[in-house]
Amino acid sequence: EVQLLESGGGLVQPGGSLRLSCAASGFTFSTYALNWVRQAPGKGLEWVSAISGSGGTTYYADSVKGRFTISRDNSKNTLYLQMNSLRAEDTALYYCAKPTSGWYIIDYWGQGTLVAVSS
Amino acid sequence: DIQMTQSPSSLSASVGDRVTITCRASQGISSYLNWYQQKPGKAPKLLIYAASSLQSGVPSRFSGSGSGTDFTLSISSLQPEDFATYFCQQTYNVPPTFGQGTKVDIK
Asked: Radius of gyration over alpha carbons of chain A, in Å?
Protein backbone atom coordinates (compact mmCIF):
# COMPACT_ATOMS: atom_id res chain seq x y z
CA GLU A 1 0.00 0.00 0.00
CA VAL A 2 1.36 3.39 -0.99
CA GLN A 3 1.80 5.77 1.93
CA LEU A 4 3.03 9.36 1.94
CA LEU A 5 3.53 11.01 5.32
CA GLU A 6 4.37 14.71 5.41
CA SER A 7 5.90 16.51 8.37
CA GLY A 8 7.67 19.75 9.20
CA GLY A 9 4.86 22.26 8.91
CA GLY A 10 4.17 24.91 11.50
CA LEU A 11 3.85 28.59 12.26
CA VAL A 12 6.68 30.79 10.98
CA GLN A 13 7.21 34.52 10.71
CA PRO A 14 7.42 36.25 7.33
CA GLY A 15 10.94 35.90 5.98
CA GLY A 16 11.51 32.70 7.90
CA SER A 17 12.31 29.18 6.74
CA LEU A 18 10.88 25.68 7.07
CA ARG A 19 11.81 22.28 5.68
CA LEU A 20 9.04 19.88 4.86
CA SER A 21 9.62 16.15 4.63
CA CYS A 22 7.60 13.38 3.05
CA ALA A 23 8.35 9.80 4.06
CA ALA A 24 7.20 7.37 1.38
CA SER A 25 6.53 3.64 1.36
CA GLY A 26 4.76 1.00 -0.68
CA PHE A 27 6.37 1.70 -4.05
CA THR A 28 9.82 1.78 -5.65
CA PHE A 29 10.67 5.29 -4.56
CA SER A 30 13.55 6.06 -6.90
CA THR A 31 11.58 5.21 -10.05
CA TYR A 32 8.95 7.91 -9.60
CA ALA A 33 8.99 11.66 -9.99
CA LEU A 34 7.34 13.37 -7.03
CA ASN A 35 5.48 16.63 -6.50
CA TRP A 36 4.54 19.15 -3.87
CA VAL A 37 1.06 20.64 -4.29
CA ARG A 38 -0.43 23.21 -1.92
CA GLN A 39 -3.88 24.40 -1.00
CA ALA A 40 -4.49 27.68 0.79
CA PRO A 41 -7.32 27.56 3.35
CA GLY A 42 -10.64 27.38 1.54
CA LYS A 43 -8.97 27.74 -1.85
CA GLY A 44 -8.03 25.60 -4.82
CA LEU A 45 -4.99 23.48 -5.64
CA GLU A 46 -1.67 24.96 -6.71
CA TRP A 47 1.24 22.89 -8.01
CA VAL A 48 4.48 23.97 -6.32
CA SER A 49 7.37 21.82 -7.47
CA ALA A 50 8.41 18.47 -8.94
CA ILE A 51 11.55 16.36 -8.99
CA SER A 52 12.61 13.43 -11.15
CA GLY A 53 13.23 9.97 -9.73
CA SER A 54 16.98 10.46 -9.73
CA GLY A 55 16.72 13.98 -8.35
CA GLY A 56 18.58 15.41 -11.30
CA THR A 57 15.69 17.39 -12.78
CA THR A 58 13.50 19.83 -10.90
CA TYR A 59 10.68 22.22 -11.76
CA TYR A 60 9.13 25.06 -9.80
CA ALA A 61 6.10 27.30 -9.95
CA ASP A 62 7.05 30.91 -10.66
CA SER A 63 5.53 31.88 -7.30
CA VAL A 64 8.21 29.93 -5.39
CA LYS A 65 11.16 29.90 -7.79
CA GLY A 66 14.32 31.11 -6.09
CA ARG A 67 12.83 30.66 -2.61
CA PHE A 68 11.94 26.96 -2.44
CA THR A 69 14.17 23.96 -3.16
CA ILE A 70 12.89 20.45 -3.76
CA SER A 71 15.17 17.48 -3.11
CA ARG A 72 15.01 13.80 -2.33
CA ASP A 73 17.05 11.12 -0.58
CA ASN A 74 16.42 7.83 -2.36
CA SER A 75 18.31 5.91 0.32
CA LYS A 76 15.77 7.12 2.89
CA ASN A 77 12.67 7.14 0.64
CA THR A 78 12.12 10.74 1.61
CA LEU A 79 11.15 13.87 -0.31
CA TYR A 80 11.94 17.36 0.96
CA LEU A 81 10.90 20.94 0.36
CA GLN A 82 13.16 23.64 1.75
CA MET A 83 11.19 26.86 1.98
CA ASN A 84 13.01 30.14 2.52
CA SER A 85 11.90 33.79 2.54
CA LEU A 86 8.39 32.71 3.42
CA ARG A 87 5.50 35.06 2.74
CA ALA A 88 1.94 35.26 4.04
CA GLU A 89 0.72 33.98 0.67
CA ASP A 90 2.66 30.74 1.20
CA THR A 91 0.22 29.81 3.98
CA ALA A 92 -1.33 26.54 2.89
CA LEU A 93 -1.66 22.82 3.39
CA TYR A 94 1.26 21.25 1.56
CA TYR A 95 0.69 17.84 -0.02
CA CYS A 96 3.32 15.37 -1.13
CA ALA A 97 1.99 13.78 -4.30
CA LYS A 98 3.00 10.75 -6.36
CA PRO A 99 2.07 10.50 -10.04
CA THR A 100 0.62 7.42 -11.74
CA SER A 101 3.47 7.54 -14.22
CA GLY A 102 5.18 10.41 -15.90
CA TRP A 103 5.15 13.50 -13.72
CA TYR A 104 1.89 15.23 -12.94
CA ILE A 105 -1.17 12.95 -12.94
CA ILE A 106 -1.42 12.35 -9.20
CA ASP A 107 -2.82 9.05 -7.94
CA TYR A 108 -1.55 9.19 -4.36
CA TRP A 109 -1.52 12.12 -1.98
CA GLY A 110 -0.31 12.49 1.58
CA GLN A 111 -2.53 13.91 4.28
CA GLY A 112 -0.78 17.26 4.06
CA THR A 113 1.21 19.41 6.47
CA LEU A 114 0.04 22.91 7.34
CA VAL A 115 2.34 25.89 6.91
CA ALA A 116 1.19 29.18 8.40
CA VAL A 117 3.19 32.34 7.75
CA SER A 118 2.25 35.12 10.12
CA SER A 119 3.78 37.63 12.49
CA ASP B 1 0.79 29.45 -17.93
CA ILE B 2 -2.37 27.75 -19.15
CA GLN B 3 -5.46 29.00 -17.33
CA MET B 4 -8.18 26.49 -16.49
CA THR B 5 -11.69 27.82 -15.94
CA GLN B 6 -14.44 25.65 -14.48
CA SER B 7 -18.14 26.28 -14.57
CA PRO B 8 -20.21 26.50 -12.60
CA SER B 9 -18.29 27.35 -9.42
CA SER B 10 -20.98 25.62 -7.43
CA LEU B 11 -24.18 23.73 -8.03
CA SER B 12 -26.93 22.18 -6.00
CA ALA B 13 -28.31 18.83 -7.04
CA SER B 14 -30.35 15.94 -5.73
CA VAL B 15 -29.48 12.28 -5.39
CA GLY B 16 -30.12 10.62 -8.72
CA ASP B 17 -29.57 13.76 -10.79
CA ARG B 18 -27.25 13.86 -13.78
CA VAL B 19 -24.54 16.45 -13.18
CA THR B 20 -22.20 18.03 -15.71
CA ILE B 21 -19.21 20.22 -14.93
CA THR B 22 -17.23 21.98 -17.63
CA CYS B 23 -13.59 22.98 -17.80
CA ARG B 24 -12.10 25.29 -20.42
CA ALA B 25 -8.40 25.73 -21.13
CA SER B 26 -6.92 29.05 -22.24
CA GLN B 27 -5.18 27.22 -25.09
CA GLY B 28 -5.40 23.81 -26.69
CA ILE B 29 -4.23 20.98 -24.46
CA SER B 30 -5.16 17.97 -26.61
CA SER B 31 -6.45 15.38 -24.12
CA TYR B 32 -4.06 16.22 -21.27
CA LEU B 33 -6.89 16.85 -18.85
CA ASN B 34 -7.57 15.16 -15.52
CA TRP B 35 -10.37 15.37 -12.96
CA TYR B 36 -10.11 15.08 -9.17
CA GLN B 37 -12.68 14.88 -6.39
CA GLN B 38 -12.00 16.38 -2.99
CA LYS B 39 -14.07 15.96 0.13
CA PRO B 40 -13.73 18.28 3.14
CA GLY B 41 -10.60 17.61 5.16
CA LYS B 42 -9.34 15.01 2.68
CA ALA B 43 -6.75 14.92 -0.07
CA PRO B 44 -7.94 14.98 -3.68
CA LYS B 45 -8.74 11.72 -5.45
CA LEU B 46 -8.06 11.07 -9.12
CA LEU B 47 -11.24 10.23 -11.03
CA ILE B 48 -10.47 10.68 -14.73
CA TYR B 49 -7.18 11.03 -16.60
CA ALA B 50 -6.41 11.80 -20.24
CA ALA B 51 -9.84 13.45 -20.55
CA SER B 52 -11.87 10.24 -20.63
CA SER B 53 -10.02 7.36 -18.96
CA LEU B 54 -11.58 6.16 -15.73
CA GLN B 55 -9.09 5.67 -12.90
CA SER B 56 -9.09 2.19 -11.40
CA GLY B 57 -11.70 1.78 -8.68
CA VAL B 58 -13.76 4.82 -9.68
CA PRO B 59 -17.46 4.08 -10.25
CA SER B 60 -18.63 3.99 -13.85
CA ARG B 61 -21.21 6.73 -13.21
CA PHE B 62 -18.28 9.14 -13.63
CA SER B 63 -17.24 9.95 -17.18
CA GLY B 64 -15.15 12.55 -18.94
CA SER B 65 -15.09 13.90 -22.46
CA GLY B 66 -13.56 16.61 -24.60
CA SER B 67 -10.33 17.59 -26.28
CA GLY B 68 -8.59 20.77 -27.27
CA THR B 69 -9.95 23.47 -25.00
CA ASP B 70 -13.35 22.23 -23.78
CA PHE B 71 -13.94 19.34 -21.42
CA THR B 72 -16.73 17.93 -19.31
CA LEU B 73 -17.04 15.72 -16.26
CA SER B 74 -20.38 13.98 -15.95
CA ILE B 75 -21.93 12.06 -13.09
CA SER B 76 -24.78 10.01 -14.49
CA SER B 77 -26.72 9.50 -11.26
CA LEU B 78 -25.51 11.50 -8.29
CA GLN B 79 -24.96 9.49 -5.12
CA PRO B 80 -24.73 10.79 -1.53
CA GLU B 81 -20.97 10.16 -1.48
CA ASP B 82 -20.48 12.34 -4.60
CA PHE B 83 -21.16 15.61 -2.80
CA ALA B 84 -17.70 17.15 -2.97
CA THR B 85 -15.56 19.66 -4.84
CA TYR B 86 -14.24 18.73 -8.27
CA PHE B 87 -11.09 20.09 -9.88
CA CYS B 88 -9.80 19.81 -13.42
CA GLN B 89 -6.05 19.83 -14.12
CA GLN B 90 -4.07 20.23 -17.32
CA THR B 91 -0.83 18.32 -17.72
CA TYR B 92 -0.09 19.50 -21.25
CA ASN B 93 2.83 21.62 -20.11
CA VAL B 94 4.64 22.92 -17.06
CA PRO B 95 3.38 24.26 -14.76
CA PRO B 96 0.46 21.86 -14.46
CA THR B 97 -2.50 24.03 -13.52
CA PHE B 98 -5.84 23.37 -11.85
CA GLY B 99 -9.25 24.86 -12.29
CA GLN B 100 -10.70 26.80 -9.38
CA GLY B 101 -13.04 23.98 -8.43
CA THR B 102 -16.75 23.21 -8.61
CA LYS B 103 -18.55 22.48 -5.36
CA VAL B 104 -21.45 20.07 -5.65
CA ASP B 105 -23.82 20.21 -2.71
CA ILE B 106 -27.19 18.88 -1.75
CA LYS B 107 -30.28 20.63 -3.05
From this structure: 13
